[in-house]
Target: Ubiquinone biosynthesis accessory factor UbiT
Amino acid sequence: MHLSLPKLPSFALHSPLLDQTLSVLSEYLPSPTPALGALDRRIPMPFKQIAAEAPLNRLFAQAIREGEFEDFEGRRIRLEVNGGQPGITLGFWAGRLRVIDGPGEATIRGSLAAFKTLAERRQDPDQLFFQRRLIIEGDTELGLGLKNLLDSLEWRFSIRQLFSS
Model:
């Protein structure tokens, strides 16, 4: 059985009005972290896997093909918003990034804004860690390995890219 996300019309993905609206909303609305945490706790793991695994594997497909993630085989890393929720634990098995339940061997924690800055590559990842906007706990060598891998890859994070095929 193959599940896929519905396709959005292309005009909806390239709308300056949509971009401006999202910019204004992100500037003036309160932090969505409490609402996201409550929602995160209610979503069953299979739905999280469906929503996150395909886009992540698409985003990092070239790096996975080139063996860049092989050092992470069988390892677990948790990305967590300050306060513990929402969060996601990722693993790498059999050539695919997987969303799994449970703690990570390493946890990278920060604010939504810090993760957004990291994903959009608007600031050097080392600066985010030195400024303590992102923190690694647990197996710091594993966490630093992921940070260094993400920093070395040529990738661009885009909501449009993640949900288009």
Remarks:
- Confidence is low (pLDDT under 50) at residues 1-6.
- The beta strands are 76-81, 87-93, 96-100, 106-110, 134-138.
- Residues 45-59 form the longest helix (15 residues).
- Residues 110 and 132 are 8 Å apart (CA to CA).
